[in-house]
Amino acid sequence: MRKTTWTALTVAAAATLTTTLMAGPAGAAQLRENTPAAAAITSITSADLAGQSSIPADFAVTMGYHPTIESGMLVNPTGNCSSPVTLPAEFETACKAHDLGYDLLRYSDRRGTTLGPWARKSLDAQLDRRMHRACEARPADATRTSCYVMANIATTAVSSNSWRQGYIAPRPEPMTGYLLAGGLGTALIVGAVALTARRGRDAAGPVAGTGSVLA
């Protein structure tokens, strides 16, 4: 089978699983609570240019930091892309914004106003959109496709973990448990790494050493 076909299948499989995990029960209403955290999450997932005024006034006291703005996104300034493989550098700001969103879930939980599944699903969906948008800026088709593969894999892993945790406020877990929870997502990571490594060998011969595959 041609390499482009394998890539297309990988993208399609990850996208299909992601859509399934993000979707709620058929016909189910996504009820949104009337709380500061709910308003903040609605604001930051509805517009990329949400201002700092959308963050609850006591967020910094509760969570220990003030959100900042990077590339027009409200972010956790010390956030990062937590992944067993190196993700494209273009995803970094989107990951930091996603970290802030998860901290809003934790903040709400600590305030005794746990949010429903809609909140975590909205944050995960926004991360997916932003990663794919970042890939679109790549000029070459091959690297853009590889970026899309990694975006789909990252979204699948995040969405599967959210589903496994019941879409409640995120809780810390060992990376081993996170990977096992990602079942298909982990398999797709392995497949994408192998595919990209093979493409690199075909184009430039054997590659010495180890390191980031798609960053």
From TrEMBL:
Residues 1-28 form the signal peptide. Keywords: Membrane, Signal, Transmembrane, Transmembrane helix. Gene3D superfamilies: Phospholipase A2 domain (1.20.90.10). It comes from the Bacteria. The chain crosses the membrane at residues 175-195. This is Phospholipase. It comes from Rhodococcus daqingensis.
